[in-house]
């Protein structure tokens, strides 16, 4: 073979190993005793295995150049992930399966997954909480992503339509407020609210009793609530309940309690 | 036959040694020799017999000579029936077992275990909720509860079977593939060439005579010399009657044949791998890329026709066990991607008809 021959025309597509066409001195196989592996001429081991002689880098460059005519350009305005998310907040994922077999059908191909960040949806506080309650496990708290996976219909386009329908219904339903939602109890709450809680009652009772024992004129609840120490206490309790127990939370709580009960330790 | 003899000898040898289990086992093997099926069947039936048999043989071994043992073995061996008969026997016994199971299932009242034992033909049992709902419906209709329940469960099982069949329907049955393949037949002209060629080669004392070569050659080159419309380049033949002929006849079979011949002649074999892949794609041997797994799969229905099936429940009573049962059926159907909308509607209509009949019976009473 001449040195400057075009290799991509010798092996344009996947083909078996032809020892006469490949000018490399390859040896393959188990060596005979005190010998070397057998040479490439008539070497079944080399013919059996799949080779990638048709996919050398220059060949791939040619493939890409040929395919470029069939491609459309990526829109230049979408040059970052954030912009993509801003303009196209819903991500739809479908999978096509390749196999070597007689049938092109694969039942797994009908599955459609929709992903959307709730921050991109126009939801107020009540709607967001209701939506999260409705979808349950499909919402991820850390990444704020709602994932809807549909595979109840036989075709992919039907599953896509169903997924979009579900998203629309969830959005509209979460904005509506039903009558029975007013019966939401403390157990249903997602986060700790200090107003009207036991902690508030206890704190106010204690303070009132302190004041009464000191014979100060009756201070009203509102004044107490508005006072600094109570506000501090409230913040520290909320932080403890919502975020869990950390060093800073605990020390903040300690300080606020000391100030509340006027303990100079 | 040789294997049989070898095993006989092997069994006869260890007569004196205290290996009763070994001999018992080898004798069991002798009973089921050639086919695997017969081995399984005999093991299942013989397993019950083995403890008493083994005990009996233990006593016999010590006392007998090898010859006596051989005779015993031969006497105990079952007559080797042909393989086909054994298969038929097996099938008959299986059918009997299934019939027994069904009868037992019908007699018992329990809902959940009944549903599971009756499924001798399916791998997974019916949804227990569905079965419970079915039994509730059956109990609400006082006439002939067991029959109702069995019919409902049979219909539900039929749903699942069609689902399973259509689930696996993607794999191609080899019979369908072979039935559609046709053996390529050579045209009679080519046969004639072959035969005449053979005959002409040897004629009278092996002298090679080739009288028909010229005409054979013209036939060899696929009749392209003498067949077809004349181009009228050299002869001033009259063109009128040919035009008249053309307008009279629509493309005849010969025209179509000619077109095929021309296409076959002009189609060059592929020069490189890419052209071969193009040809294969045209023939359908290679899939079209980018691969779409649903190519050719038509389903004109929309998603709401598959999932929202409540509108088909209008014929049923609004409350009660029947409604509950039908709602469960609809829930199951809506989650089923292997049935078409028509099949789902047919299922619901079957139930509707069934309950209508039962209502008439009830009102008679």
TrEMBL record, chain A:
GO molecular function: structural constituent of ribosome
Family annotation (Pfam families): MRP-S28 (PF10213)
Record-given protein name: 28S ribosomal protein S35, mitochondrial
Keywords: Ribonucleoprotein, Ribosomal protein
UniProt-listed GO biological process terms: mitochondrial translation
A GO term from the CC aspect: mitochondrial small ribosomal subunit
Residue ranges constituting the Small ribosomal subunit protein mS35 mitochondrial conserved domain according to the UniProt record: 103-177
Record InterPro entries: Ribosomal_mS35_mit, Ribosomal_mS35_mt
Keyword Chaperone: no
């Amino acid at each position: 073979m001449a040195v400057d021959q075009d290799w991509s025309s010798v092996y344009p597509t996947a083909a078996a190993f032809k020892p006469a066409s490949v000018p490399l001195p390859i040896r393959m196989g188990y060596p005979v005793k005190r010998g070397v592996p057998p040479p490439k001429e008539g070497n079944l081991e080399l013919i059996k295995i799949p080779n990638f002689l048709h996919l050398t880098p220059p060949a791939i460059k040619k493939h890409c150049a040929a395919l470029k005519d069939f491609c459309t350009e990526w829109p230049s305005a979408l040059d970052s992930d954030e912009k993509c998310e801003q303009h196209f907040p819903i991500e739809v994922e479908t999978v096509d399966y390749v196999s070597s077999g007689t049938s092109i059908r694969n039942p797994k191909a009908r599955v459609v997954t929709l992903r959307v960040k709730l921050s991109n949806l126009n939801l107020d506080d009540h709607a967001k909480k209701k939506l999260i309650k409705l979808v349950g496990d499909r919402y991820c708290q850390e990444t704020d992503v709602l994932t809807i996976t549909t595979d109840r219909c036989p075709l992919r386009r039907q599953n896509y339509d169903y997924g979009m329908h579900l998203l629309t219904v969830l959005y509209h339903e979460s904005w509506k407020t039903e009558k029975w939602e007013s019966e939401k109890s403390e157990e249903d709450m997602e986060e700790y609210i200090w107003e009207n809680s036991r902690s508030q009652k206890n704190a106010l009772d204690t303070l009132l009793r302190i004041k009464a024992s000191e014979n100060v004129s009756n201070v009203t609840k509102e004044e107490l609530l508005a006072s600094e120490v109570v506000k501090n206490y409230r913040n520290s309790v909320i932080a403890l309940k919502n975020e869990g127990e950390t060093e800073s939370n605990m020390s903040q709580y300690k300080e606020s309690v000391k100030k509340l009960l006027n303990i100079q330790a | 036959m040789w294997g049989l003899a070898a095993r006989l000898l092997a069994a006869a040898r260890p007569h004196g040694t205290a290996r009763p289990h070994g001999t018992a086992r080898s004798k069991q093997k002798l009973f089921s020799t050639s086919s695997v099926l017969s081995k399984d069947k005999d093991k299942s039936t013989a397993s019950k017999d083995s403890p008493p048999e083994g005990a009996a043989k233990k006593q016999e071994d010590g006392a007998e000579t090898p010859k006596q043992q051989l005779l015993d073995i031969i006497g105990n061996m079952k007559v080797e029936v042909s393989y086909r008969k054994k298969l038929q026997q097996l099938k008959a016994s299986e059918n009997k077992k299934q019939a027994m199971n069904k009868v037992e299932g019908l007699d018992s009242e329990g809902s959940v275990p009944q549903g599971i034992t009756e499924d001798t033909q399916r791998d997974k049992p019916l949804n227990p909720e569905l079965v419970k709902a079915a039994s509730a419906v059956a109990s609400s209709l006082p006439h002939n509860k067991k029959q109702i329940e069995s019919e409902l469960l049979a219909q539900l099982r039929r749903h699942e079977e069609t689902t399973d069949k259509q689930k696996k329907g993607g794999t191609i049955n080899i019979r369908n593939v072979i039935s559609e393949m046709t053996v390529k037949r050579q045209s009679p002209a080519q046969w004639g060439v072959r035969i005449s060629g053979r005959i002409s080669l040897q004629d009278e004392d092996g002298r090679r005579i080739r009288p028909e070569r010229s005409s054979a050659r013209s036939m060899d080159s696929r009749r392209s010399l003498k067949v077809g419309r004349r181009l009228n380049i050299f002869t001033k033949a009259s063109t009128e009657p040919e035009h008249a002929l053309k307008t009279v006849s629509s493309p005849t079979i010969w025209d179509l044949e000619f077109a095929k011949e021309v296409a076959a002649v002009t189609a060059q074999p592929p020069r490189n791998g890419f052209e071969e892949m193009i040809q294969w794609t045209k023939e359908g041997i290679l899939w079209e890329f980018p691969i779409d797994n649903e190519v050719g799969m038509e389903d004109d229905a929309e998603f709401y026709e598959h999932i929202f099936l409540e509108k088909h429940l209008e014929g049923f009573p609004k409350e009660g066990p029947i409604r509950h049962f039908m709602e469960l059926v609809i829930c199951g159907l809506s989650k089923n991607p292997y049935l078409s909308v028509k099949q789902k509607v047919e299922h619901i209509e079957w139930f509707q008809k069934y309950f209508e009949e039962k209502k008439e019976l009830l009102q008679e009473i």
